[in-house]
Amino acid sequence: MKLPEPGNYIIAYEEDEYEMKQPVKIKIDETDNIEISKDQFAVTLDAEKIEWPLTVRTVQEGDRFRPFGMKGSKLVSDYLTDRKADLLERRRQLAVVDAKGTIIWLIGHTTNDLCRITKNTAKVVRMEFISYA
Fold first, then answer.
1. What number of CA atoms fall less than 13 Å from residue 82's CA on the CB side?
2. Phi, psi (5° rounding) for residue 26?
3. Which of 88, 124, 78, 85 is nearest to 108 (CA)?
4. Half-sphere exposure of residue 12, counting CA atoms within 13 Å on the CB side?
5. Angle at 76 between CA 74 and CA 81, to 5 degrees
6. Of 56, 16, 39, 55, which Cα lies nearest the Cα of 109?
7. Domain ranges across the chain
8. Neighbours of 120 (CB within 10 A)
9. pLDDT tens, position by position, for the chain (133 residues)?
10. Strand stretches in the chain, DSSP E
11. Peptide bond preceding 53: is omega within 30 degrees of 0, i.e. cis?
12. pTM for the complete prediction?
């Protein structure tokens, strides 16, 4: 996985609050309180399906993910184009990526279907995007 320029990403090794140089602030909690968020800037994912550490970075050319509710993967660029995102939005788009390189959350848009909450979910990771200057 190619990382963006220094200062354009953070790596989260555990639950906490993190801030990027841009500045970006994100809060990550792990809990057994399974309450699904309806806010586009806060998500709840199955903790067993996420591999730490997590990286918050800008999207890169060729990035793929499986949008919530889809069976197959899609290029992030195609997903953002379908959502009518302009060029600046596409270049500034942030993603949360797990240790396997899987995009688990396209911040402000959708999560990866592979990390969805199911009836077997016992513990969740809750992430909240706080600010982006």
1. 8
2. -140, 140
3. 85
4. 25
5. 100
6. 39
7. 9-127
8. 7
9. 343 444 455 667 777 766 555 567 888 999 888 888 778 889 999 999 999 998 888 899 999 999 998 999 999 999 999 999 988 888 889 999 999 999 999 999 999 999 999 999 999 999 998 876 5
10. 9-12, 16-20, 24-31, 42-46, 54-58, 64-65, 74-75, 94-97, 103-106, 110-111, 124-132
11. yes
12. 0.79
For residue 11, the model assigns a pLDDT of 65
For CA atoms 60, 66, 70, 73, give the dihedral sign: positive
What is the side-by-side order of every strand in the sheet holding 42-46? 16-20, 24-31, 124-132, 42-46
Q: What's the DSSP call for residue 99? A: T
CA dihedral (26, 29, 30, 31) positive or negative: negative
Q: Which is nearest to 83 in space by CA: 103, 60, 67, 102?
A: 67
Task: Answer yes or no: CATH 3.90.550.10 is held by domain 9-127.
Answer: no
Residue 85 burial class via C-beta count within 10 angstroms: exposed 0-12, middle 13-18, buried 19 and up? middle
Alpha carbon separation from 97 to 53, 55, 60, 84 (Å, rounded): 9, 5, 12, 23
